[in-house]
Amino acid sequence: MCTLEKRGNIYILTLTGDDDHRLNPTLLDSISGAVHRVRSETTTPSALITTAHGKYFSNGYDLAWSQSDPDRHILMSTKLRLLVRDLISLPMPTIAAVSGHAAAGGFILAQAHDYVLMRKDRGFLYMSEMDIKLVVPDWFVKLLKNKIGSPAAIRDVLLRADKVTAEVAVAKGIIHSAHDSAEETVKAAVRLAEELVMRKWDGHVYGCNRKVVFADVLAAMNFDETVEDVAGANILSSRI
C-alpha cells in the first residue's frame, strides 16, 4: 500500500512496509488512487515525489501472484500502463526518490517520473527480463529510450541485464543524481521539488508538453504485445 503526505505544494507518495513492493493490482490501485487525489487537489504549482520504505523501491511485477492465471498478468499490465499514463499527464513535475532496488516494472515506474534520484549506499536498477526469460514490452523500451540518451546504456540495461548502482547510473545518464542514504535522497528530492515549484509553471501546460514529449510512449501503451502473447497462448491451449 502507500501513503500520501502534503508539505505545502509538495506531495510525497510513499510505498509503505518492508516488503519488495511487488506491482500487483492492489498496490497499483493504491498508487493510482493517490495520484488521482493529487490531481484533484491541485490548484497551484505543485510537485509529486514518489519514494518507498524498506530495501526495495519496487521489485517489479508480482509474478508469483500471476502465475496461476494468464489473465492476472494482463490485469497487472493494464493497471501499470494506466498508472504510467496518469503520471505522464499529471499537471506538475514528478520526482522518483529511489530508496532501494528498482527492478523491471519497478524500474519502469521510477523512470515514468521526470527526475530519478537514488541512494548510492545501497540498491541498484535492474531490468531482469533477460535473466528470467521474459520479452520486454515495446512500451517499456520506448519509455527507456526517451529517458536514457546513450544507446550503449540502453544495451547494458536491456540486453546485458546489468545491475546498475546509483553512481554508475549517473555516469551513464540513467538518473538525475545520487545521494548518501535513503533519507538524503528524499531530502534532495524535496529540495528539487521546491526549486521546480518556485518556477510557477502552469500545470496544464506542463502536463500537455510532457504528453507531447512522450507521445510515442503513450501510443505504444495502447497495446502490450507480451500480454497479448500470453492471452493467445491461453486461447490456443484451450482449443487443443
UniProtKB/TrEMBL annotation:
GO terms for cellular component: peroxisome. The keyword Cell cycle does not apply. Pfam families: ECH_1. GO terms for molecular function: delta(3)-delta(2)-enoyl-CoA isomerase activity. It comes from the Eukaryota. The keyword Lipid metabolism applies. CDD domains: crotonase-like. Pathway: Lipid metabolism; fatty acid beta-oxidation. It is an enzyme of class 5 (isomerase). Its EC number is 5.3.3.8. Transmembrane segments: none annotated. InterPro entries: ClpP/crotonase-like_dom_sf, Enoyl-CoA_hydra/iso. It catalyses: a (3Z)-enoyl-CoA = a 4-saturated (2E)-enoyl-CoA; a (3E)-enoyl-CoA = a 4-saturated (2E)-enoyl-CoA. Keywords: Lipid metabolism. One of its GO terms (biological process) is fatty acid beta-oxidation. Belongs to the enoyl-CoA hydratase/isomerase family. This is Delta(3)-Delta(2)-enoyl-CoA isomerase. The lineage of its organism: Eukaryota, Viridiplantae, Streptophyta, Embryophyta, Tracheophyta.
